[in-house]
Structures are given as C-alpha cells and as structure tokens.
Known about the structure:
The chain is of the alpha/beta class.
Amino acid sequence: MSGLTDTVTLANGVKMPKLGFGVWQVKDGEEAVNAVKDALEAGYRSIDTAAAYQNEEGVGKAIQQSGISRDDLFITTKVWNSDQGYESTLEAFETSMNKLGLDVLDLYLIHWPVEGKYKETWKALEKLYKDGRVKAIGVCNFHQHHLEDLLEEAEVVPMVNQIELHPKLTQEPLRDYCKVKGIHVEAWSPLGSGKLLNHPVLQDIAKKHEKSVAQVILRWDLQHGIITIPKSVTKSRIIENTNVFDFELSAHEMSVIDQLNEDERTGPDPDNFDF
C-alpha cells in the first residue's frame, strides 16, 4: 500500500515525499512546535517552511524533539524577497539554517520572482547546491516566462516550482511546460485556502468515496503527479489529510475536477505582486 513514504524523484535523483506538511500562517513557538510534532507523529516526513513565515525556529525545535532521524526527513525553506541578491541570499540561508538547527537543507526555494534580482539569487542557490549545503534547489511562483528567463543563464535547472494550485486554478499550461523541463510541480494552498471545501461537485465526489473534500482534492493532486503540502494546526485534520492512499478517483472524476478551473487565485499573481 502506498502512503506517506511515497516519493517523487527529482531531476538530480533526490527523493522528495509526494505529500508534505505546510506551515504557512502557523505561529512560531508552541503552535508551530506542536503542529509539526503532530504532523511527524502522523507520518509526514516532509515539512515546508519559509523565512517569511517567521516560524523556522519552531519547526527546528519540533524536528529536534521528534526523535526522528534527520536522514528520514525532508525539510524545505525559502529565501524572502527582501533578501534576494547574491550575497544577501547566502546570508539569509545561514540565518534560516541557524533557526532550523540544520547543517544541510533538503530543498531551498526562491519565494517569489523579484524582477531584476532572481537571477543573482539563483546563482547563490547554485553555489549552495554545489557546496553540498542543499540537496535540491528550486523556485516558487514562477510563471513560464520567469522560468524561460532564468534558464537562459542557469547552470542548474530548478528541480521544483511551488505554485498556487487547486481545482479552481489548475495551471495546466505551466504544469505541461515544467514537465518538459523536468521540473516537479508542488501545490501550495491545495485546498484553495479552504474556499473549496463547500463546493457541491467536490462534495458529491467525496460522498461517493466516503471521504472529505480535502481528501478528494489531495488525491486529485497525487494522481496528477503534483507534490502537495496541506497546512493545518488541528491534529484531527493533520491526520485526516494523510488518509488519501486508500482510494482512487476514476478518470471521469479526475476530468470533472479538472473542469472546475476558473484561473481563480486566492493569493497574488506573480506578475502583479507588490514586492
């Protein structure tokens, strides 16, 4: 039976769990420590944080207190917009690593494509990768044109592009482009910030499978080969989101969900984000 230990293989051979735990909007301190510990106890092995979330210390404490071998964990963090640039990215990385209490990071991402800066930022990520400080590097919120621009000079192709992706924003053209380039797509806000949980079409499918709408959406991600990182601070939901490996959506159900796309974002458009 497949499950939380299921991985995708990134372009450089590194294995990354298909289902991870996101900590956006989780408060640092007790809330972050408890949420991450609950997630690890539930079987998650991939934790996704960012400098901008201001909870790297809580994530680090939870990792240390969990007793789980570092080799069994996959930890992601991101460089924030105000730290972009070559030297400032290298400094920001060290700050994040100190907060997390780690020597080596599994995945380091550029959080947003800050115009005029992301190429220098990427050079810093390439250095960290070549120096063995990071096992894999990637980007977030990059449209196809950002990736094309980056690839004109990049020595290493991003291994991951983490983007807003859910049934109302399926991002199919971008997913197709990433597939051609060997870039794995990872969904942030996979549940549409909770706005999709009352959708009648998704509720019907969930009822048929005796599952929650959240479980149906996460299953849809996984069957599309999309890495997904739901967030919750409620232990029961953290556990519920792991129970997506004991059912399968039919080709028809997958198609019905695909057709819910309206290119509707819950977060900023990377082309119109006030950096």
